[in-house]
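Listing 4. Sequential folding, example run.
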Amino acid sequence: REEKVSQTNLPEPKISNLYKGRFPITLNLKGNQIALPKKLPVYKLRSSEYDSSTIKTIAERFGFVSEPLKTEDSLLGIIYVFSSSNNFLSIAPIQRIVDFKTNILPTSPAGDFSEEEFKSIALDFLLEKKIISDKNDLKLFKVRAISVGPGGHISEELEPNVISISFIKTVKDIPIISGSHEMGTVNVKLNKEKEVLSVYVDDLPEME
């Protein structure tokens, strides 16, 4: 036996406009004032994960020679973890992410600082560890003073005690935006004594 299903016409929803009137926008720019380039370079990203040799090389640059602990993350995939009494390093080869931390605790508030000085210290450290081969490989994105608690977490209750320097990788002076743009393709944190506390690298796939 078939049952007939009655149809009900739903009323049309009424969505009120929160903005009344028109915005006073005046456009003074004309089409002939915009100079468009005739051609632009195109770079192709070739996805390739870190191989075992690259993982070993990166670890040795940060002072790790022992065998890593191999674990798996639901988002990052396989992760190789290196640790010592002073430092910690994790490498996610599929995502090309390098995360280095020291056990140095930020104890004193960050006072007046020179942006250029901290930028130079961060770049010198990245060159020393061969994260970059040239200072021009990175473009400064943001320098800011933040508050970090004993557990390494950002705390709003403390006075700023860490300087965070973020960079974006460039190709021929063109900044490349990654998935962690807010963090920066490379992030280095320093304390007031200008010691490196951590380095985070969201590396890019190889380019052609």
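-- end of first protein; second protein begins --
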Amino acid sequence: KLSDLFNTKFVNTGILDLKSIRLYDKDLNPLVQSDRGPADFPSKLPEELRKLASGRKGAERMKRIGALWNWNNQPFYSTLVPLGGLRLIGYTEVVTSPVFQLKSLSQTLGLPIILKGTSGKELLKSGDWDQAEQESFSVVDYMARSNTGQPALAVEALEDFSELNAGIQDIQVKILAIFAALIFLGISGALWVLRQALFIPVAETVKA
């Protein structure tokens, strides 16, 4: 049962914030979805991921792909993992929260940050934000978008430009680079750990 995977040590010990697991056949038709996760969560492949997956042929279909997307003003990151080894039999979609993977963004940037959903709701605030805000630091904002161009997650950072030669654009580029690196490394590590617990048993289920 897919929902049992929410109770594994990989989720309970905080390796990743798992939101949903979905199975598809090799043509990306939905087969089954975990019954745990956000209420009324969509049951089909996000358009952002479908756009990347559609039209692939041959060995391209065996490559893992991922996409940032937005639903109900909340950001999600989906990774589509092929099943079946050398013979494709289907896909597993692992849906996680990118906010969880970005907890170390403030420390890596060396700046106070806030992460917000597309409605403006605060999702994460670093502990040094309030003090920096009182000191009238300048706000540098960056909107993370999906591959279809839709807003997905807002990042705001505070910087004291009086002692810095770099401009706002330089900070935005730095946020983008570190944002992408944290998402990639976090998801890649989580999927590596989950391989034995999830993908091998799921592949056997699809074969059956």
